[in-house]
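Troubleshooting log. The previous run stalled partway through. Resubmitting the same two chains, unchanged.
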Amino acid sequence: MITQVLINGVIAASTWVLVALGFSLIYYTSRFFHFAHGAVFMAGAYFTLIFNMFLGIWLLPSMLLSIASSALLGCLMYLFIYHPLERRRASPLILMLSSLGIFIVVENIISLVFGNEIKIIRSGLVEEGFPLWGARITSVHILIVCVSVFLVVATGVLLRTTKVGKAMRAVANNRELAKVCGVESYRVILWSFIVGSALAGLAGVLMALDVHMSPAMGLNAIMMGVVVTIIGGIGSVPGVALAALLLGMAQHLGVWMIGSQWQDAIAFVILLVFLVFKPEGFMGKKIRKAVV
Amino acid sequence: MEYLLHILILIGIYVILSVSLNLIAGYAGLLSIAHAAFYGVGAYVAALMALNLHSPFLVNVVCAVIFSGLLGALVGIPSLRIRDDYFVIATFAFQVIIFSVLNNWVSLTGGPMGLPGIPQPTFFGLKISSHVGFLLTIGFFCAVTLLITRRIVQSPFGRVLKAIREDEVFTQAAGKNIATYKVLVFVIGAGMAAVAGVMYAYYISFIDPTSFTVMESIFIISIVIIGGAGSLWGPVAGAVVLVLLPEILRFLGLPSSVAANVRQILYGGLLVAFMMWRPRGFLGKYAFQSGEASE
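Second attempt completed without errors. Output:
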């Protein structure tokens, strides 16, 4: 039983880490909370539904198309809303409020078009899963865990080695200084929106494959994304991975011991403890300098 | 006529909610998305007392205000350590936790089934049962809220709040204990929101957690921002516009399932549009620009 609980924790963590990684990457360079990230996640799932069920494209290509479309969606949000706002010198609070607005609009467009009920892509019967240390795990779960481990490592490496990754870290560190050195923050933030949204789209696709999709999934995903990002520490890939594991474990142990309805409360109590006592998370750098 | 009164009552409830949130967010600059939690706690405290203890209306109002105010202090405390967007996340966390408690503590709150059959209130010996009666009571509480708010913002206390909003470090340097001010403004704002909750509970006579979600909090903050943060009448204008606007949809003959979504799209779109072109809202004096960004 306990192994099943732990495995469920790892599976949950694998999905949240993808959402949080994108969210964290976007916050890292642009310095505001992009709540509409949850909408991009949700769009990823529904794009798969459109491509696979309505247009009849095979599952794998339609998954790839969905990820690309999600990346495009994130990109458009930046180009048409956030970037014009940034040019007006909007504060992070204003950007955050507008992201809430975008989130509400996208969520309701989806619910208007597809309805509020649950939609499933899974074809055929529910898989029973392979036995593993006295627990059971399905092939989709193995796929989720492998993909997210791979992407966490890849993101960590790419941030350190590629030109774009280095530029992201430069912009995150000091936007003015980066500009002086010829790194245009506009392009770099756009890149982080593309990569981050693709990750969210992927998480949405995987979620759709594993369970189902509904217009409520976006809010839930962004809530977990926020918790993981802050606990892990902004801009730290291992921190985010560790935080996702911690949250996944805490939630599933909680489910096992006190019942599934308290999942959100557990996550947010942990978040509050971190916000008050260690707002930079356990791997992040100090974030708040005294504002003079 | 009933319909018109119903709309006016709703406007009244949202006026109380948005004016009280404006005190926190508009004057003290502490953007909070936990207001629906205070609103909900007020409603639940009054409903539980009316149902289980059969206590009189005014006692319930006072208890709801006190309870919600204490909770407000709890939410205000993180603001001493974190600021701006991080503080918003903290209030968001409170909102989710409170909603979770309302939704899951089934033995007390009835969980998702809610609390039905809240009795009609008696106010100064008069039983309030008609729409007109409720409208007058809510109008009375609106007036009280506005008067208290005006009194607060014109007082030295209000000036310190605005100073905290503009420059926290400077206010502290000027010898003001900003911690007390921040917590106190949360207590006051939360207490006022509780009154709106009590009125809602008595008026609808049935409450369930879905009226007090994160989305409701975002709606209240949208009213404040679109109406205009940091001005006394801004949130009033915002409440009137944002409650009336979706009613127009009703006359367009949209089916109710579609209308609910279109309503939300309208709010979301308006929020984005205002952030783009008029971050101060209709009548606002404050646009959530920190000193750094507005240079």
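Takeaways: Chain A has one domain: 2-121+129-277. The radius of gyration of chain A is 19 Å.
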